[in-house]
Amino acid sequence: MTYVTPPTVGGGATPAVEDFVAYVYNLARMSVGAGQSIGVLGGTYDPFHFGHLAVALEVRHALDLDRILLVVANDPWQKSAQSTITPARIRLARVTAGVEGLAGIEASAVEIERGDESYMADTLQTLRREHEPCDLFLIVGSDTAAGLDTWERPDEVRTAATTIVVDRSGREDGRPPPGWDHIVVEMPSLDISSSDIRARFADGRPVEAIVPEPVITLIRTKGLYGARR
Fold first, then answer.
1. Does the global pTM surpass 0.90?
2. Domain interval for residue 104
3. What's the total number of domains in the chain?
4. CATH code (residue 178)
5. What strands, in cross-sheet order, belong to the sheet with 105-108?
6. Tens digit of pLDDT for each residue in 120-132?
């Protein structure tokens, strides 16, 4: 397991760990003649908010990845049976608007175009086929990592990509099961909840500090989550 932490600043500063990790990865890619390094950050994005964006930006910087794909789930099977989910194309439009103009951060419709329930094993296969040669990095939160073995076809997921665990709370228990090689990227905790954001739109509380303005506009224009038009 490798840790990537923000650089120390001030007196007695030490070289940033992420610089060393990025250097090693660049050497490895050059030695095997690999193509792009692509981070895969899957999610429902209902709605897309600054917490999602912060993770994408931090991981891309820490590991010097070429691109981060924000993969919008078509049918998030672990959530759709429990609650009503906004239609996939609307969620995709909001992510696309929220990342516009950000170099190396992109919305991906790969799961929507495939249709049916969304399984990361299928998604990684498709992305590798479309972008070969490439190095894939699956980005998960420390709150999700321990449950990776419960995903559909976990062995395929484990071998198809390097797992990146984003640690926003210092949880030592928030790690993948045994056998999952992984890299930990540490970043400040952002207390942003999608359910709280939906409630804020419904009752008119401010959301400007936690949701990108283009996403707010789309939500209010369509009256989603009970937001006033």
1. no
2. 15-193
3. 1
4. 3.40.50.620
5. 2-4, 182-186, 162-167, 134-141, 36-43, 67-72, 105-108
6. 999 999 999 999 9
